[in-house]
Amino acid sequence: MKVEQSIFDTDGGWRTLPDSDAVNEPQLVLHFGAKELLATPYYYDILRNSYPKAHIVGCSTAGEIIDRDVHDNTAVACAVEFDSTRVRVSSRRMEQVVDSFYAGVELGSELAEEDLRCVMVISDGIQVNGSELVRGLTSAVGGDIPVTGGLAGDADRFESTLVSCNAPAEAGCVAAIGLYGSSVSVGHGSVGGWDAFGPERTITKSEGNVLFELDGKPALDLYKRYLGDEAANLPGSALLFPLMVRAENSDEIGLVRTVLGIDEAQKSMTFAGDLPQGHKAQLMRANFERLIDGAGEAARIAGARGLTGRKLAVLISCVGRKMVLGQRTSEEVEAVAELLGQQVCQFGYYSYGEISPHVRLGSCELHNQTMTITVLAEDAD
Question: N or C terminus: which one in the chain shows less Cβ crowding within 10 Å?
Answer without folding.
Answer: C
